[in-house]
Amino acid sequence: MTQPRNKSLNGDFLPNLCNPQSVLLLVLVAELIAILLTLNSATLPQFSWETLALYSFQVQWISLISALVICRLRPWLRSWTPVRAGLISYGVVIVTTLSMSIAGQWLLQNFSNNISANQAFQLNLWQLFNNLLTSAILSGITLRYLYLQQQLRNQQQAELQARIQALQSRIRPHFLFNSMNSIASLISSNPDLAEHVIEDLAELFRASLAEPTLIPLERELTLCRRYLEIEKLRLGKRLTVDWQILTTNEDIHIPSLMLQPLIENAIFHGIEPMPDGGTITLKISQAKNQLMIAIANPYPLVKKAQPASQVPSQDRHNRMALDNIRHRLQVHYGNQARLSSSEEQGIFTTYIFCPLSQ
Predict the structure, then answer these.
(1) What is the rounded distance in angstroms from the CA atom of residue 163 to the CA atom of residue 157?
(2) What is the pLDDT of residue 169?
(3) Which CATH number applies to 169-355?
(4) Are 3 and 75 in contact (CB under 8 A)?
(5) What angle is formed at CA 267 by the lines to CA 264 and CA 268, rounded to 5 degrees?
(6) Spans of the chain below 70 pLDDT
(7) Hey, where are the domains in the chain?
(8) N or C: which end of the chain has fewer CB within 10 A?
(9) Whether the model pTM is above 0.85
(10) Which residues, at least 6 apart from 58, have a Cβ–Cβ distance to it below 8 Å?
């Protein structure tokens, strides 16, 4: 049987019920349901551990088998409409309950000492109906909760992906204009260098239009070097870069366009406003399973006079870039990554800590 093509753009219908965290949660919820059913069948002073064991056995198997089947159907559920996917998932639980209830009654009758070996199997229809009704109510509530939880997660992922797309498609207009002016001035005096700058600029735009993904660290560093070569044409000796790459692991991957916007910020807010320029320090190291990145640049302690409307705008652009990168780290690494910054003695430093992705 061939797998249907995914036609849905809304993400998964239900969470992945086969990962260890979900399985553990299912086991705990199933056991709570078994305890609830046991308490419902008798008062607390007459609590029966045998009854709890029977309920636990049956509920646990129904939960785990249903989760396994729904997990296998996950690619199809993603491509179906919510109504159809919901009915299929609901039907899986009901059919599993029916099967396990019949199997449970058969096992109890065959292993009971009170039943003769020659007695035929007799199905208790009222007990079967009671199990199906209980399962229909509980599974309906559970599946509805899981569906709403997954839709919220899909919406959050879509919003974060939109932020990533916005960041990757954003190259400040002043950088583009300055680059084009530099290219225009080089066409007559140094056409070979002008061609090289055009190639660097094209590579930057190609990276900004690419799909958000993890790329090798060396590729991101190459993109940063291309960007810095363009800026050096404009800033000359005012811009120097201190590369401190202390890791030799070629398999390290990071989110695309994570370092270039930070270096762009360092030039725009630090190097460019200072008459004598300064040095941008990029330090990358690793310790155990963590990658550490630090980008430091000087900044003017006394800013030159500017219209009041421009100062908040520059600060807002800086915060926007940092917030966008922080959201991108959240998308790829969750709470395992963090971004922070500090200002000390005229040096602004941005720190990134994230797990190694290979």
Answers:
(1) 10
(2) 60
(3) 3.30.565.10
(4) yes
(5) 85
(6) 1-10, 43-44, 112-119, 163-175, 208-212, 302-319, 357-358
(7) 20-166, 169-355
(8) N
(9) no
(10) 34, 100, 101, 104, 131
